């Protein structure tokens, strides 16, 4: 069991590095696309990117998709984005907290939508 968790976490941490690259572009485009950027609009636009990532997480991670999204989000944003690199270091703490919470929430919503869809198909 523990070996399985370590193997999965290792894959999630590697994926979090690539997640950060896409998220950084989504943040830049969402801020540049607004005439007067606000925190909520930026979080809304980047949530669409996180919904896509949530779909990929639920598609490929069958055991613990919600835990995977938490690890990916924390290591991607806080680990590679702030501590080990400076790709997200210039943004506000509120935006960083919103981004960290966004992927797990998006993954939860995508998983619920998929399970409701499967439930409707089985009836």
From TrEMBL:
Transmembrane segments: 12-31, 37-57, 64-85, 91-110
Keywords: Membrane, Transmembrane, Transmembrane helix
Keyword Membrane: yes
Domain of life the protein comes from: Bacteria
Name listed for the protein in its UniProt record: Uncharacterized protein
């Amino acid at each position: 069991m523990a070996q399985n968790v370590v193997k999965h976490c290792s894959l999630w941490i590697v994926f979090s590095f690539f997640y950060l690259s896409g998220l950084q572009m989504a943040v830049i485009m969402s801020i540049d696309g607004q005439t007067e950027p606000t925190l909520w609009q930026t979080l809304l636009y980047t949530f669409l990117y996180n919904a896509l990532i949530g779909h990929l997480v639920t598609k490929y991670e069958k055991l613990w998709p919600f835990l995977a999204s938490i690890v990916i989000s924390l290591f991607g944003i806080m680990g590679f984005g702030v501590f080990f690199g400076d790709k997200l270091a210039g943004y506000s703490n509120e935006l960083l907290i919103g981004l960290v919470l966004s992927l797990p929430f998006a993954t939860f919503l995508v998983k619920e939508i998929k399970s409701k869809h499967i439930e409707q198909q089985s009836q």
